Structures are given as C-alpha cells and as structure tokens.
Amino acid sequence: MSQLLSDKLLPSVLLEFGYAIRDCNISLLGNGLINNTYLVRTDDISFVLQRINQQVFKQPLAVINNADLISNHLSIKHQQQRYPLKPIWQLSSQDNKSYVKVQGHYWRSLNYIPNCYTLEAMTNTEQAKQVAGAFAQFTGALNDFNSEQLTEIIPQFHDLSMRVNQLNNAISNTEEPLLLAAQESIDFILSQQAFITEVADITANLPKRVTHNDTKINNLLFSHETNQPIAVIDLDTCMPGYIMHDFGDMVRSCCPSIAEDSEKIDDMSIDIDLLKTLSQAYIAGFNGDLSDIEQASLLVGIKLMPFMLGIRFLTDFLMADKYFKVNYPNHNLVRTKNQLHLYKLFCQQECLLTEIVLKS
Ligand code: GN1
Ligand code: MG
C-alpha cells in the first residue's frame, strides 16, 4: 500500500460518510500537487474522497462553502440547460454536512462521474477547441453569480507583485547552498521588472470575474463515450479573478511539448496551432462578452502564468518544499526552470502571439 493510501484516518473518515472500510476499494486519483485525492468504490456507489491540505488552505470550511455555492449555481444552470457541462458537488456526511472533520483534519467527498478520463497533454486542435470552449462556458456560467458570497480562499493568489515579494522574503531567509542552486533563476526573475510593471498596469484596469484559477488541462473530465469535455473539476481556487489567469494557465498546460516538471527543457517547443485554436475558441466561448482590454490581457496572461508559477515553485524550493508535493529534492527547482523557459519561449514569440490573440 502506498504511503498516502495508508492514511490512518481513512477508516474513521469513511465511517463518517456511512461506509465501512472493509466494503471499500480505494485507489489514488489524479495528479494534484496539493490535496490527497482517492477514488472509493463500493458495491453500490463510487465517489471521490479528498483530504484538504490545511497547510495550503488555511480556511478549509471556506473552501467547502465556496464549492457548495458554486456547485449549486452550476447545477441550477445545468437543469435549466444553460450550462451544458455536468456539475460536481460535495456529498453529505452522516450528519448532513458537506465535509467531515476527523482529528482536526477536514475531508470531503464528491460525486464521481463514471466513464471519464483526464488528459495530461493535448494532442490535437479538436481537443484545443473543446478545452477552451469548456473553460469559457464555466466562467460564462458564473457571470451572474454573486461573487461577494465567496471567500477569497488564498488572498492575492495570482497577484504577481505579492509573489515576487514572497520570493524576496524567501531569498532573505535561505542559506547559501540552496541559494546557489537557485541563483540563475532568481537573477532572471528579478531582471523582468518591465514585465512585472506591465502586469500591474493592465491588472489595474481589468474587470473582475469569478474565475477558476486552476485551468490545467487535467482539471477537465472527458467522456469515454463522446471524447468531449463533460465536467470542469477542482473548484478549490474558484474565486474573483481575471480571465487572463484562466486563459494563461490553460495555454501553459496545453501548448508546451513537455510536462511542467520535465527536465528536458531544451526539447520544449510550443504548438502554435494549438495556441491559435485555444485563443479563437476561448474568445468565441464568451459570445462577445469580452471587452477589448480583456481580450488584450489574454496576451499578458500567456506569459504571466508560467512566469508566476515559476516564481511560486522557486519560492517553495527555497522554503524547503512546504507547499507543493515533491517526489525528489530538486523537484521544485526543475519545475521552476521549466516554467521560466516556457515564459522565455512565449516572450520570443511575442509578435506572433499578439497577432493570434488580437485577431482571434
Ligand atoms: C496546484 O494541486 P493542483 O494540481 O490542483 C496549484 C496551482 C498550480 C498547479 C501546478 C492551490 O494545483 O496553482 O498551478 O498546482 N494549486 C494551488 O501544477 O496552489
Ligand atoms: Mg487545484
């Protein structure tokens, strides 16, 4: 049994949801870098079980409450045939709550949609069209959602200046050997002040929407039957934000030729056809509801998301890997170099990207 599956709390947690562990077949699910997620199968039902990472989500009840609010909104729209994707919702515990708390740890279970798969990489423009369409539908469906009901789960989550400050703090508190290993990446990040200012300037003029904030390709479920997207998952960071973040994160995870933690950065290339299709389909998915500045911001988002994630990975590397799960000692540094390389590739293609995004 893997280390995660040996979680000592599983029997008590399952009991609180009404199941005896001996009746459950449990396996790990997904590749998230934060929460522990399991698929639980019984003779009658399959569901997703998740332990919320309280190091990252300091207010687990707010995460749960946000998810309930968003799921309700999407479920109503789905019933009214105004949201074609399937909503994901939190299942009730024995005492009718959307979570259980065992020895101070918060867990929840979610409905499991059968006959589905996720993608770690994108292979063709048809997929690009579908992925962009699905994420645009998700944000579009939240257009009339009262965002004041939502808690800002991680304050300033995608605020670049704040992320740079966090990096600077980490640098001040890090010992020589780690700093030396990270020096090249640190120098590069600090040399990008013009971009950091550009981001701050455009952000000041953008309207806020309710955004997903984690639009990686593997946060979409595809149907085995139709090979079409069937649900947007992982509502953990769904909160007020800017669409350049969702668009940029989608492009970041779909267009590079290698995974976000691959060391082979010399092999990294960007699939421009995919990017073009993502851009056209994302913009089209808003049915004319994007302002000119929002459309222009998508270009900034493409560069911003790998740059900011590179900063976040590097900060965590310097802070001894407290935030993202790692599989080996330099994992976060490898991820940093990968994401900064991707940012550089996007910068080199700036003219082409401008043409693609503004003409979409
Ligand atoms: C984390 O755990 P996961 O894979 O859903 C992170 C995202 C990053 C992503 C990088 C709350 O998401 O912001 O983009 O890793 N989530 C949080 O793979 O920090
Ligand atoms: Mg997530």
Descriptive labels:
single chain, alpha+beta, Aminoglycoside 3'-phosphotransferase, Chain: A, domain 2, binds magnesium ion, binds 2-acetamido-2-deoxy-1-O-phosphono-alpha-D-glucopyranose, 2 domains, 10 strands, globular
SSE inventory with pairings:
Blueprint (H helix, E strand, L loop, with lengths): L9 H7 L8 E4 L7 E6 L4 E6 L8 H20 L20 E3 L2 E7 L4 E2 L7 H17 L18 H13 L3 H15 L2 H11 L5 E3 L8 E4 L5 E4 L6 E3 L1 H12 L17 H14 L6 H27 L12 H18 L1 H10 L1
Antiparallel strand pairs: 1-2, 2-3, 3-5, 4-5, 6-8, 7-10, 8-9
Entry summary:
The protein has eleven helices and ten strands. It has 360 residues and is α+β, with helices and mostly antiparallel strands. The chain folds into two domains: 3-112, Phosphorylase Kinase, domain 1; 125-358, Aminoglycoside phosphotransferase (APH), C-terminal lobe (Aminoglycoside 3'-phosphotransferase, Chain: A, domain 2, Alpha-Beta Complex), CATH 3.90.1200.10.
Describe this structure in words.
There is one protein chain. This protein is α+β, with helices and mostly antiparallel strands and 360 residues long. The protein has 2 domains: 3-112, Phosphorylase Kinase, domain 1, CATH 3.30.200.20; 125-358, Aminoglycoside phosphotransferase (APH), C-terminal lobe (Aminoglycoside 3'-phosphotransferase, Chain: A, domain 2, Alpha-Beta Complex). It contains 11 helices and 10 strands. The protein has helices at residues 10-16, 60-79, 125-141, 160-172, 176-190, 193-203, 243-254, 272-285, 292-318, 331-348, 350-359, and strands at 25-28, 36-41, 46-51, 100-102, 105-111, 116-117, 209-211, 220-223, 229-232, 239-241. The strands form 3 sheets. It has a 5-stranded antiparallel β-sheet with strand order 1-2-3-5-4, with helices on both faces. The radius of gyration is 20 Å and the shape is globular. The mean pLDDT is 96. Magnesium ion is lined by residues 32, 214, 234, 236-237.
